[in-house]
Amino acid sequence: MFALHSTDTHIVKESLLAICQLCQDNEDVMVHVLGENGMDDLCHVINTCKMECVRLVAGIFLDVSFSDNLRGELLKHRKYVPVFERMIRCSDHITQQLCLQTLEMIALTSPGSITSHPNFIAPLLSSISKATDLQVRTISAKLLLYFVDNTETMQEVVNCSVDIREVLVTLVTTQDNVMQCVAAKILYLLVEHDRELLNDDRIMDLVQSLRINAVDQEAWMLSDKILIMKDGG
């Protein structure tokens, strides 16, 4: 797809629009688009082109993610991971949504395809605490849960340069039931992983706050379980 390497943004954009239209519900076209160096060409756009073109590529990736036969191609090689990181961190919330929805589709059928790339942890934590779009924060939180629920990556979440405690404040203080539920699950798994956290005042303050303000029944039950653990139960 030589047109995607053009220095003319208009040519790249028109080429991507044509690819988007052809790929919709057409797996044969998707196979052709990803074939040979197709994935590399699309990644080139993400790394070098304006956001309007990056958004179109994110949409193509989402279309591909609905194909049982092809979604695995998106993270088949580690060299593709940085372009997804770039999209998670970008300033365009629509691109972020499309990227995160793609990763969510991959995680639903193959969690290991996500958790095998711990480089996603930092951008996910950042988007939870900094993104202004609720859908971006919610999907990021749900994806983060895969890393927390994995014994091999749990410690990497705890040790990440982005403080998990600050992120949990964002999750706990929201009135969104999904976000609160994710927060409760993360807190419970963290404490299960390291009982010393029961003596961490910041963590326990979050648990108390969640139990008092929970709008989700599961969030209330999990926070209550943690408090029972704290009391020696």
User: What is the arithmetic mean of pLDDT?
Assistant: 91
Radius of gyration over all CA atoms, rounded:
20 Å
- The count of DSSP E runs of length 2 or more, i.e. the number of strands, is 0
* End-to-end separation: 62 Å
Which band does the percent of strand residues land in?
under 5%
Instruction: Classify the secondary structure makeup into a structural class.
Output: mainly alpha
- The helical percent reads over 70%
Order of helices and strands: HHHHHHHHHHHHHH
Question: What is the 3D shape?
Answer: elongated
Main sheet makeup: none
Q: Unreliable runs, pLDDT <50, ≥5 residues?
A: none
Tally of helical segments: 14
Write the topology of this structure.
Layout: H1 9-23, H2 27-34, H3 38-48, H4 51-65, H5 81-89, H6 93-109, H7 111-115, H8 121-130, H9 134-148, H10 154-158, H11 164-173, H12 177-193, H13 201-213, H14 217-230
Helix pairs in contact: 1-4, 3-4, 4-6, 5-6, 6-9, 8-9, 8-11, 9-12, 11-12, 11-13, 12-14, 13-14
Give structural notes.
The chain is mostly helical and 233 residues long. Helices cover 70% and strands 0% of the residues. The protein has 14 helices and no strands. It has helices at residues 9-23, 27-34, 38-48, 51-65, 81-89, 93-109, 111-115, 121-130, 134-148, 154-158, 164-173, 177-193, 201-213, 217-230.
Features:
233 residues
Structure summarized in a few sentences:
This protein is mainly α and 233 residues long. The chain has helices spanning 9-23, 27-34, 38-48, 51-65, 81-89, 93-109, 111-115, 121-130, 134-148, 154-158, 164-173, 177-193, 201-213, 217-230.
